[in-house]
Amino acid sequence: MTAGTILPTAAFAADVTFVMKNSHPNAVEVELYSQDRDHVWPGNGEVYILDDGETKTMPLSCNEGEKICYGAWISGDKETYWGTGPGNKETCEDCCYTCTGGETEEVNLTE
User: Could you tell me which of 106, 47, 99, 53 has the C-alpha nearest to residue 71?
Assistant: First the structure.
């Protein structure tokens, strides 16, 4: 390598674990959406399912500094939602986290 060579910048990988609890009496479906690129977890048309009363940890690999928001809705009822809702279509307050490693605080989905 010669002096002055610029190396391409790469996105640094990090991990974050979303911790979510379903305190609603019905099962809830969850997706996690990157706000910085076109990426959804778990992806491939799949969703995380939380039965009533269930707490689930959802570890994911993301890019360092990436903003990730959760969307959750009652299984079979996309009109009742939390966060950015199904398909990341809504705006939210306090439903996004920055990918810097570690765990989120427990997100409690209630009625």
Answer: 47
From the options 3.40.50, 2.160.20, 1.20.1740, 2.60.40, give the CATH code of 13-104. 2.60.40
Whole-number mean pLDDT of the chain?
A: 91
- Helical spans, DSSP H, in 60-104: none
Angstrom CA distances, 53 to 23, 26, 40, 105, stand at 5, 9, 24, 17
Instruction: Indicate whether this model's pTM tops 0.85.
Output: yes
Task: Report the pLDDT value the prediction gives residue 12, as an integer from 0 to 100.
Answer: 76
Residue 86 has φ and ψ, to the nearest 5°, of -65, 135
Which amino acid is it at 103? E
